[in-house]
Amino acid sequence: MTQTKAIILAAGKSTRMITDTPKVLHEVCGRPMLAYVIDACRRAGVDDLLVIVGYRKEEVLAAFQGDSAITWITQDQARHGTGHAVMSCRDALQGYTGNCLVLCGDGPLIRSEVIHQLLAKHAQERAATTLATATLEDPTGMGRIIRDEYGNFQGIVEQNDCTPEQLRITEINPSYYCFDTPRLFEALDQVRPDNKKHEYYLTDTLSLMLRAGHKVVAITAVKPGDVFSINSRHDLAAVGNVMKHRILDRLMDSGVTVVDPDNTYIDARAAIGQDTVIHPFTYISGRVTIGKNCAIGPFAYLRDGTVLEDDVVLGVFTEVKKSTFGSGSRVRHLSYIGDAKVGSRVNIGAGTITANYDGQKVSPTVIDDDTYVASGSILVAPIHVPGHSKIPPGSIVNSQNNRPSAGPDGTPDHSKIQRKDT
Fold first, then answer.
1. H-helix or E-strand spanning residue 396
2. Sheet of strand 324-325: strand arrangement
3. pLDDT at 419 over 70
4. Cβ proximity of 48 and 5 under 8 Å
5. C-alpha span between 334 and 376 (Å, rounded)
6. pLDDT for res 399
7. For residue 418, what are the CA distances in angstroms to 15, 161, 374, 389?
8. pLDDT band (50, 70, 90) for residue 417
């Protein structure tokens, strides 16, 4: 297959979102929306990426600073439109004669399968341009795809310019393109900002190529539910909901039980093992790894950096942050465990917390295997609880004496950490 690069448009500000954050850095299920587009390209085998940035570009570069495979292109005047954005890649593509995808960085619902189809059709037809389209029941606000009586692509007409007959067309343009690169730049040289916005439109290249006798092909390959683009906070929420269900579907297809998908949130970066059950109102945020045969929730909150081995139970109103749990451990009720290393077969009773922050620094808690922590205990970090220990109810345990502190009346609490029989 002909070599392919990808150009991703990510320079916009999005005034309708009313934000100081670059549009493509707004998160969908825990990740910047731009990350999904980059991933889709790579899964489709397109690894050579040019990402066009503009508004607060330093923030975008910082968010992807670990990704050295991206070539960053600056568009100095983002208001000049999509055609101008692609023209800013001219120097980086000097002498390149392969194909290039052009995609929008604010379209995180893009699927790698559609990119595969687009590339295959482009190669099969030996086209100058191939675009992927979608058919919507309600295409209001979208550019309509115009075809002749034989089904050949004839152009794109924006909503405001449509005749009454064209308004009845349901095939629309979600902005997935594959271009023959030299022909793309030949056409871009002819594009003029002769429109109400005085912008250089990438879509104008399609009619220019047709007039030059080049082949332009449109395939209906994009599912209606994937067409969402993000132009407002409402759009962001709608796309997030679609992505959430994609994540949950993927997990359920891999053997995870999600009892109530409508009331469960799981971050795109989470990994969950087979036969684990996720109960309603569970919120899993960040890079969380959960093993097999675990039970989580209801009303559990797992935060970034949490790792659970197999057969772990985290119950109602339990929060875990940046902690690891060995197999067979239990935290069933109303507890907070933060920055802890919990061994195997540990039982932590209701209302127990790790006091991991003293107002200045965060400290770790280590609880070794086969330990029993009774209800209402406070483990003051840094602390190391040895294996086979038993902490009585209501204890406040610190590292200095490794036993409960004095009671509220100042008298010593004589119940020490006890060793369980083994």
1. strand 396-397
2. 271-272, 289-290, 307-308, 324-325, 340-342, 365-367, 383-385
3. no
4. yes
5. 9
6. 80
7. 62, 80, 12, 6
8. low
- Alpha carbons 80 and 100: distance in angstroms, whole number: 21
Are 4-226 and 250-419 in the same CATH fold?
no
Q: Choose, from 333, 384, 388, 414, the residue flagged as catalytic.
A: 333
Instruction: Tell me the residue type at 233.
Output: R
Distance between CA atoms of 186 and 129, rounded to whole angstroms? 13
Q: Which long-range contacts (CB under 8 A, 24 or more apart) does 37-41 make?
A: 37/8, 37/103, 37/104, 37/105, 37/107, 37/108, 37/110, 38/8, 38/64, 38/67, 38/70, 39/112, 40/110, 40/111, 40/112, 40/115, 41/6, 41/8, 41/101, 41/103, 41/112, 41/115
CATH number for the 250-419 domain, one of 2.40.50.100, 3.50.50.60, 1.20.1250.20, 2.160.10.10?
2.160.10.10
Amino acid at 150: Y
Residue 387: which pLDDT band, with cuts at 50, 70 and 90? very high
**Domain 4-226 architecture:** Alpha-Beta Complex (3.90)
DSSP string of 102-130, one letter each residue: EEETT-TT--HHHHHHHHHHHHHHT-SEE
What is the pLDDT averaged over residues 260-276? 98
pTM of the model: 0.90
Nearest-10 Cα torsion for 19, 22, 28, 30 = -100
Active site residue 384: no
**Of 351, 340, 405, 400, which is closest to residue 373 (Cα–Cα)?**
351
Pairing of strands 277-278, 257-258: parallel
Question: What's the CA dihedral at 359, 364, 369, 373 to 10 degrees?
Answer: 0
For the chain, the residue count is 422
Count other Cβ atoms within 10 Å, centred on residue 419. 12
The string of pLDDT tens digits covering residues 64-121 is: 998 989 999 999 865 688 999 999 999 999 999 999 999 999 999 999 999 999 999 9
Rounded mean pLDDT of 385-404?
85
Element (H, E) at 172: strand 171-180
**Contact indicator for 127, 215 with CB cutoff of 8 Å:** yes
Q: Can you give the residue ranges of every domain in the chain?
A: 4-226, 250-419
User: Per the structure block, which two tokens stand in for 44?
Assistant: 């489709």
Q: How far apart are CA 395 and CA 242, in angstroms?
A: 46
